[in-house]
What we know:
Residues 6-89 form the DNA methylase N-4/N-6 domain. With 394 residues, the chain is an alpha/beta fold.
Amino acid sequence: MSSTINGPTFDEVFRRVRDSARTKKPVVGLTHKFYKYPARFSPEFVATVLECFSRPGDLVLDPYMGGGTTVVEAVARQRRSVGCDINSLAVFVAKAKCTALNASETKALLAWALDIVPALNYMTRSTDPAEQDDRLKNLTGPKVRAVKKIICLALESIDSLPSNNAREFAKCALLNTGQWALNGRRSAASAEEFRARLGATLAEMVGAIELFGKRMFESPSIDAPILIHDSAEYLPTHPFFGSGNRVDLVITSPPYPGVHILYHRWQVDGRKETAAPYWIANRLDGQPSAYYNFGSRKERSLDAYFAASLRTLQGVRAVMKRGAKFVQMVAFSNPGEQLDRYMWNMKQAGFAEDLLSDGRGARAWRDVPGRSWHAIQKGATMASKELVLVHTAV
Ligand SMILES: C[S@@+](CC[C@H](N)C(=O)[O-])C[C@H]1O[C@@H](n2cnc3c(N)ncnc32)[C@H](O)[C@@H]1O
């Protein structure tokens, strides 16, 4: 069994990675609290994988980046980083988390939080044409009216901020507060609660980006991550890879077979879905859930899922160095049927699995709700849901 570049044996590293994935700690640190992206990674897991399988200066890719946990952790550890996600909301969030602010932007944002936000008044007339925006569908009931109006007014006031970076940052604070105020709640927050929370959130985010910016500047040779708003299928055609750059390590979590996640909606007023996050971030929407999940919930065979997964894995393999590791966390609705197909895809795309050398080829599983891990024999099935897999590009 291969050992890692940093010394310890693969078995030792595998156990470390498995233990880090077991963490029950809340997601904190760096800029991770900017937005609760659905199905996001534990930063502790990503940090452990980075430390075990890469060195400063290495190129790290997350082809299903989501809210950017991998790119943030990679940049903080002086790795070069590329993230890719077809969801424009994911790219918006990851960009806000990795874009340092200058002193005048910071000053303007804090003044906005201190002077403008507390004065946003429900009774003020809003001229924002977004009131007629399709992305506001289902954001209509009396329970959400106050929050919606304050968001409208806040979006108008953001125009006065001095740069695009500052405006995007303020929108991200609004997105964070909007998620807290509207998503999955029985009744939305009041206007007063919303204003207070928005000011406090923005101040906290400014503090976090200041510290993160310092970590980025400690290593002037490391650029901000390259963020690609496109399918991983198109990675090989990107000019960055066209000019010969190759990936040293992949850390990722793909869409899961048979498990559908609402990456692109909030739920308001019971379970009504709203595209309000795209309205706040000013990004395009219009895609159904199947677009983000590699296929429709209605399709029982999962053929579309496995075809899409194979295409993207082949695209990822094409931009990796031979011998580079691919570490992923993946969940299954029915591991007994889906795991073998998933592993076949990995093999077809040019990856060989790294297993513990204890003679039984154990893998590491986790029950999603119970958060406990089990090592089971290769090929056996169980009712647990999530799995950490380590592969080598061959
Ligand atoms: C499980 S989430 C990743 C969450 C991420 N690890 C985090 O910490 O936020 C999977 C992501 O894959 C993205 N995705 C789905 N199909 C894709 C494709 N063809 N290319 C790139 N990203 C895709 C989805 O939009 C979703 O954001």
